[in-house]
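Before surveying the methods themselves, it helps to consider a single example record, giving the amino acid sequence and backbone structure tokens:
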Amino acid sequence: MKSLIEKTGKETCFRLSNGKELYNIAELSGEIPLMEDHVFYHHVSDYHNDFANWIRDVYEQKALANKVVKANSKVKLAEILEDALVKEEQKKSVSTNTKKTPTKR
């Protein structure tokens, strides 16, 4: 499972219908509020969610993809992605803070 901020390669980046390429979930999260509606709805409908597919297939983040697939608006998708990024940052922070440093003897 990849980190949400880990950049993908050019071959697995997300290409929006307007041609813009996104290389990680943090970039997607930042792009959602700026995205034109016709671009968003090209990738999200009642029948498909390209963002959820990318998150599941490239990042292997099935739980997040299952939440994203239910997002039918830019606002909801932005909330889900931001929440996931905050949680990942918190885990990373806790992990960094709990590493023990060797004691001198």
Summary: Residues 16 and 93 are 32 Å apart (CA to CA). The beta strands are 14-15, 21-22. The first strand starts at residue 14 and ends at 15. The radius of gyration is 16 Å.
